[in-house]
Amino acid sequence: MLDPVQVLSDYVRFPSVSADPAFHEGLNGARQYACGVLEQLGFKVEVVPTGLHPIILAERGGDRAWPHVIIYGHYDVQPPDPLNKWTTPPFEPVIRGRRLYGRGTADNKGPQAVQFGALAKVFAENPNLPLRITFLIEGEEEIGSPSFADFLKKHRDRLREANLVLLSDTGSPNPEQIVITTGLRGLTGLEVTLTGPRTDLHSGIHGGALLNPIQAISELCASLHAPDGRVNIPGFYDDVREPAQWERDELAKYPRTLEDYKQFLGVSQFYTAPGYTALEAVRFGPTLDFNGIGGGYQGEGSKTVIPSKAFVKITMRLVPDQKAEVIRELLEKTLRHRCPPGIKMEFSLKEGGSPYAVVPPGHPNTPADQSPVLARAFQSADAAITECFGKKPLYLREGGSVPIIGQIRQQTGLDSVMIGLFTPEDNLHAPDESFSLDILERGVAAYAKLIKGLAAG
Predict the structure, then answer these.
(1) What does the domain layout of the chain look like in residue ranges?
(2) Alpha carbon 438 to chain centroid distance?
(3) 103 sits in which H/E element
(4) Most Cβ neighbours (<10 Å): which of 12, 362, 378, 428?
C-alpha cells in the first residue's frame, strides 16, 4: 500500500523551482516522480510538452456513463531563499513533531500526496471503482502558469468530457476547521515607467526647472485611492458582485477575530474601504496595491540627482464580475489622463486572470441548472470533511488568485470544488514551510470518502 508520508518526503527531495533555470533537473525529477506514482496507481500517463515545463496529463478511463473528475495540482515550488532562515535544508524533508518540513510540502506536494494516498486506499478496496479520473499536474503555477492557456485550448474538447475539477491549492484557518473555497480573486496589473529628462541631472544645477519623475509617480500613486480607502478609478466598482448574505454568514463563523488578525499582522488598526470589515475586505473586495516603487539613487549615502526615470509596480485583485482586461484598461486610461505634461509614460503588462466564483447546492443563488455531479461532489465533500475532521466545512471565498481555475471554466465550462488543506502555520512561500501530518492523515480519509461518494452516483 502506498504510504503518503513517504511519497511526500520523496517528492519534496526534488528541488522543482520553476522560477530559476538552475533547478531544471529538479523539475524533471519531480515530474518523473509524480508520473511514477500515477502509473503505480494504474493511470495512463502522458507528458505534454509546453514552452517551459511540461504538463502531466494522466487518465483512468472506464465507462463513459461513469462520473468524470479532473484533479488539478502543480509540481513546481517557490524558490527556497533566504536559505539561512531555514532550520533544516529546504529540500531535505524532516519530521519535527506532527509536521513534515521542506519546500513544497504544503504548496502543493502535500495535498497531492493526500490525493495519491486516498486513491490508493480506494482502489485497494475496489479496483473497479466506477469513476473516470484525469490528473492535470503542471510545472509553472508558481510563475503564473504561462503555458496553461495554450494547453487548455489544445485539449479543451478532451477535458470538456469531465463533470468538475477537484483541487487542494487553497487554505483553511487551522487543522480542525477546513474550508471549501467558493471564490478566488482575479489578478491584473501594470508596471508603469515615467521618464522626464533624457538623463539623470544635478539637482543643484537643474532643480526647480522641471518636474522630478519621482514626484510625478508619487502624485499619480496617491491619486489612485480616495481618503476613505476606495480605489479612485472611474468605473472600477461598476461590475462588482457583492457577496450574498449566506457568504457573510459563513465568514462570521471564521475562527479568527479581528483582534487575532491584528496581532497576526502586527498592526494597530486596519485601513479598509467602506462596507467591509478587514476579514471581508480580503475576500469580498477588489483592491489596488503598489508592490514596488523606485527611481534615482538607491545606494548608501547621498547622491543629489534628479532621476531620468521612476517606476511603480501595480497589481489589482478583482472580484466577480470584474474582468481583468477591462479593469487594466481603466487603470491605464486613468493614469494617462492624470499624467502631468512633460512626462513620458510607458506600460509593461503583468499577466493575470479573471476572478472565479461557484455557488454550492442549497442556496438562494444556486444556479437552477447546476450539474448534479457537481452538486453531489459538494455534498460528498461536506459529509467527508465533517466526519473526518470533526467539524462541518466553511464555504468561503479566498483573497488569493489561482488564474487557471477561471481559465478552465472559460475554456471547458467546468466548475471546481476546492478543498483547503494548508494553513497559516505552514509558512507557504517562506522559510520552514511545512505540512501538518494530522491534515495529511485526515485528508486521506476525507478524500477517500469523497471519491467513493462521487463514484456512488
Answers:
(1) 4-184+355-456, 186-240+286-353
(2) 23
(3) none
(4) 12
4-184+355-456 CATH: 3.40.630.10
231: which strand partners?
225
pLDDT at residue 48 tops 90: yes
Which residues sit opposite 73 in a β-bridge?
Answer: 137
Report the C-alpha gap between 180 and 384 in whole angstroms.
12
Residue type, 67: P
Backbone angles phi, psi at 55, to 5 degrees: -105, 135
Residues 186-240+286-353, CATH architecture? 2-Layer Sandwich (3.30)
Residue 63's contacts (CB-CB under 8 Å, 6 or more residues apart) are 130, 132
The confidence band for 57, taking pLDDT boundaries of 50, 70 and 90, is very high
Please, is 177 exposed, middle or buried when counting C-beta atoms within 10 Å of its C-beta (0-12, 13-18, 19+)?
A: buried
pTM: 0.91
* pLDDT, tens only, 174-233: 999 999 999 999 999 999 999 999 998 888 888 888 999 999 999 999 999 999 999 999
Burial of 52 (0-12, 13-18, 19+ CB in 10 A): middle
Q: What is the pLDDT of residue 144?
A: 85
CB 17 within 8 A of CB 31: no
Name the helix (H) or strand (E) containing 279.
helix 278-284
